[in-house]
Amino acid sequence: MATPRHFLLFPFMSKGHTIPLLNLARLLLRRNISVTIITTPLNSPFIRQTLTDTKATVIDLSFPQNVPQIPNGIESTDKLPSMSLFVPFATATKLMQPDFDQTLQSLLPRVTCMVSDGFLGWTQSTASRLGIPRLIFYGMNNYATTISTVIGRDRPHAKVDSYDELFTVPCFPSIQLTKNDLEYPFNDPYATGPQAEFILDLIETNMQSKGILVNSFYELEAKFINYWNNEIGIGVKAWSVGPLCLAEPPKAQATEKPSWAQWLDECLTRGRSVMYVAFGSQAEITLEQLQEIANGLERSNVSFLWVARSMDFEVLDGFEERVKDRGLIVRDWVDQVEILRHECVNGFMSHCGWNSVIESICESVPILAWPMMAEQHLNAKMVVEELGVGLRVLAINGSVRGFVSSECIESMVKELMEGEKGKEVRKKVKELGELARKAVVEGGSSWRTLDELLEEVYTML
Question: Which Pfam families does the record cross-reference, listed alphabetically (predicted)?
Answer without folding.
Answer: UDPGT
